[in-house]
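Hi C.,

You asked whether I'd gotten around to modeling the 361-residue construct. I have! Everything is below, sequence then structure, no commentary in between.
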Amino acid sequence: MPERTLTPRDLNRALLARQLLLERARLPIARALERIGGIQAQYAPSSYVRLWTNLDGFARDDLTRALERRQAVQGTLMRSTIHLVSPRDYWLFSAGVGPSREAHWLRTWGRGQTGDDLAAAREGLRKALAGRTVRRDELQQILDAHGQSVWAGAWVELIREPPSGTWERRRADLFRLAAEWIPPAAPTEEEGLEHLLQRYLAAFGPARPADAAGWAGVPPARAREMAERLALRRFRDDAGRPLVDLPRAPLPGDVAAPARFLPTWDATLLAHARRTEILPEPYRERVFHVRNPQSVSTFLVDGFVAGTWRLEASAHRATLVVEPFERLPRAAADELRAEGTGLADFYEPGLTPAVRFTRAG
């Protein structure tokens, strides 16, 4: 049968549904993280804001407790960036991306080192870190003593140990061997790559295998190999390009999409999800630009980025400042005001929440 063609709006609504952005869910935090493919977490509050957006009744203490109880972990994973994931996904993601990351390092910065050199350094680092929680400066000293750059810390499975990386203590300054924090596992690279592709499609599909590779930080050929092994649905986008997807993954069609606030560096806005047009291309340079390498926090209207936001707090008031790119319809502004009041209260409980709109432009 001919492959079904999916419009950009079809892909946009599929992404919103899979990212829990059409309606808030009632899920344990670990399960929610698995549904959305983890959260990029260089800036600790981003994880909290994203889960507030996704989960019904989420409170700030919920994530801090989950980290303390080892129901969620933070480590260097996809694209060599810090991600918040479930313990189960941690080992599979690490196994899938680790070899590609090491191979890239050897090609680019290895200075004549071999895979055997890295393996020996890794074992030495594990022994030096065993039974210890170390601060960032201590970790650097250990790496220097083994003749390795900080990149080597990405090859040894390390997690940010709470309270490091929480709302209350935002810097990534405490590290621990992952195998001493959560039950260890040893999946193969093949198992990890297959799991990465499945998680990507469940969270961001339908998509091309190359999109999954870009999200994970692995060679596109490795993602294509995994796609050929799986029983996947086949589609085309409106330009005729092939897409793949998991069986029975949601395709809700042209449904209404509520106003939503997204944190900085949200994965739905990155290049691997461009086909969904959630970030209209004319606005991309206003969100990601060289003068602001940390990106900005954004909001969605009808499923598309329509502006940015920031929080301003005084002694008595927490104000969410909403900056639309274009003039907003009254209904959208009313919806954003209601949603934004809740976010301001989430940020600064005890202060009077408010929303202020700036002039569009």
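If it helps when you're writing up: The chain has a mean pLDDT of 92.

Thanks,
B.
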